[in-house]
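A brief tutorial aside. Many learners find it easier to grasp structure tokens once they have seen a single protein encoded end to end. The record that follows does exactly this for Ornithine cyclodeaminase. Read the sequence first, then the structure, and try to relate runs of similar tokens to stretches of the chain.
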Amino acid sequence: MLHLSDDQVRDLLPDPVRAVELMRETLLALADGAASVTPKSQVVHEEGGFANAMPAAWPERGLLGMKWVTLTPSNRDHGLPMIGGLMVLSGADGTTRATMDAAELTAQRTAAVTGASLALDDRPVTFFGTGVQARSHARVIEALGRAR
């Protein structure tokens, strides 16, 4: 089975403008029922720590998958990342086709949702943040020509 690291995922993801277009299509598919997601299913695995399972499907495109995200505060004491994630991709027949690290995918997806939302409102944009999310949002906002 294929596994893609975050570096490989980053190399395969579309440019920010295309990611926003794809996210807009996805949001419309969710709105009209062509695609589906369920609310996050969460379990607690240590004090302050949890794991979320987030399945989604878009049958007409043959897409089926789940993102698994863990937040483990005690990892900081061991020099490990506090947040971890894995994306599992299945074929239309339900067989697992690939797994991939989820950090890069999550950063771009979150920023692409923001970018798709910006198309609904042409007012100036201001955002606050740091780290991965700030960088991914800045790339999308700049690519859309919305930076001020």
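Self-check: The first helix runs from residue 6 to 12. If you spotted this yourself, you are ready for the next section.
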